[in-house]
Each structure stands twice: as C-alpha cells, then as structure tokens.
Specification:
Shape: globular
Structural class: alpha/beta
Number of strands: 5
Order of helices and strands: EHEHEHEHEH
Mean pLDDT: 93
Largest sheet: 5 strands, parallel
Number of helices: 5
Distance between the termini: 10 Å
Helix content: 40-55%
Strand order of the largest sheet: 2-1-3-4-5
Length: 123
C-alpha cells in the first residue's frame, strides 16, 4: 500500500477525527491520510494529491459533496465514497448520478470503513 493516499473531506471535526482513528493503522503501511474541511478545499486537494480513495461528506459549506464529487470524477480516477446522514433513496441516487462509486450512511461502522479502504487500496 506504499505511497497511496486517502482524502477525508468533512466539515465536522469529530467525523474527521473518527475517520483518522479508523484509518490510522494504514499509515503503518505507507498510506497517507489527508484532510479537508469543506468541499472547495476537498476539490483542490483531490486535484493536487490525486488520492486513491476519497471519503466525502455531502452537506458542507462553500461547495456541497455532490458538486465536489462531480468535478473530482470528471478530473481524476479517485474512488469516491459519499459519507452522509442523508439517508433517503433520492439522496443516494443523486450521489450516484454525481459520479460517486459508493454511498455509506452515517453513523457508519468504523470496521466496515477500514475494511473497505483496505480492499480498495489492494485492488
């Protein structure tokens, strides 16, 4: 997993911290964890760092996750996982239409997120 990157984009500091704790064991294998606090910053970091995986919140200031996802998917090959409390089927469909590869609802199971990241980094 050397030199791989995971970008976490969420405006909630406690969600960023939870994901950091969940994924920190991957750093032992050389995976770099990157963080952004809103969609605009997340888009800029995605285009600059080209992470393998992006965990992206939907409801954020400056640019929502749908718009960020759409632009990221047009310009990178990053695997985008939308992480959101928006649990309606219409919300999930909107995320998939924006190009998201996957949709995970909050609250999420940290072990499932770690397993998903390991599986994606090893593909």
């Amino acid at each position: 997993m050397n030199n791989k990157k995971i970008l976490i984009v969420d405006d909630e500091p406690h969600i960023r911290a939870l994901l950091e704790q969940t994924l920190e064991s991957l750093e032992d294998n050389g995976t770099e964890l990157l963080f952004a606090k809103d969609g605009e910053e997340g888009l800029a970091m995605a285009l600059h760092h080209l992470p393998e995986i992006i965990f992206l919140d939907i409801m954020m200031p400056k640019m929502n996750g749908y718009d960020a996802c759409r632009q990221i998917k047009q310009q990178t090959s990053s695997y985008v996982v939308l992480l959101t409390a928006k649990g309606q089927e219409t919300d999930r469909q909107k995320g998939l239409e924006a190009g998201a590869d996957e949709y995970i609802f909050k609250p999420f199971d940290p072990d499932a997120v770690l397993y998903k990241a390991i599986k994606l980094l090893n593909r």
